[in-house]
Amino acid sequence: MIVLAIETSTPQTSVAFGNADGVLVSAEVSGIRPRREAVIPTIEDLLERSGLSLEQVGGIAAGIGPGLFTSLRVGLESAKALAQVLRVPLVGLSSLDVLAYPLRHARRPIASVIDARRGEVFYSLYRPVPGGVTRIGDNAVASPESLVADLEALGEEVLAVGNGAVLYRDLLESALGGSLELAPYALRYPSAATMIELALPRFEREEHDELFDVVPLYLRKSDAEIAWDRREAAGQA
């Protein structure tokens, strides 16, 4: 079974095709918004380079966030449209889970941290378990200082990963000192290649999602909604 994975929760668009033998072909595109002019052309380029065809795809995995508002919507729309056209099942995967999974062999808790902009981060904490990672608590959006407080509350050495951890590295290291380790810079974005490995067992067990259930994981309102609320509050005042 060939799986197509699409991840657009961050400034990096990541697309991959893979099967039980591993990743067949993948690509990452940075520096532009991951709208259809990035997602679809990247898929087409990978198909041309690999000799694969969309008709060979048996399932689609999509990153559901949390992440950048417009990016998530566009990535999921592309994934859902392809699933409908190809009549194949769809699996939605948390982008924070995808970030943490490559570090499953660590011997300490893992903090997946994505830059949420506006001085905030999306984050979740994990513990490595045999075969993967398990989440500690809920996904959160908060200030970097709140993340520091949660990490201090663990009272353990922590491995931090993600572009949010890179962005606030100085703050994290200043507060946590030697109890913090940063994952390699190359792992700062969730990868579609990792999604292949996570999604395949779910497809094999037929644990795919209903199309209408796969929606962006928004942990806060969009900029437009926040601006509207402020105008409403100003009008009432």
Outline the fold blueprint.
Blueprint: E1 2-7, E2 13-19, E3 22-29, H1 36-50, E4 57-63, H2 69-86, E5 90-93, H3 95-100, E6 110-117, E7 120-129, E8 132-142, H4 144-154, E9 158-161, H5 163-167, H6 169-176, E10 180-182, H7 192-204, H8 223-236
Low-confidence stretches: 224-230
Q: Choose one word for the global shape.
A: globular
Strand content: 25-35%
As for the CATH topology of the largest domain, it is: Nucleotidyltransferase, domain 5
Q: Largest beta sheet, briefly?
A: 5 strands, mixed
Q: What letter string, H or E per element, gives the SSE order?
A: EEEHEHEHEEEHEHHEHH
**What is the CATH class designation of the largest domain?**
Alpha Beta
Arithmetic mean of pLDDT: 91
**Mind telling me which CATH architecture of the largest domain this is?**
2-Layer Sandwich
Distance between the termini: 59 Å
Structural class, from helix and strand content? Answer: alpha/beta
What strand order characterises the main sheet? Answer: 3-2-1-4-5
Number of domains: 2
Rg, nearest Å: 18 Å
What is the CATH homology-level superfamily of the largest domain? ATPase, nucleotide binding domain
User: How many β strands by DSSP?
Assistant: 10
Helicity range: 25-40%
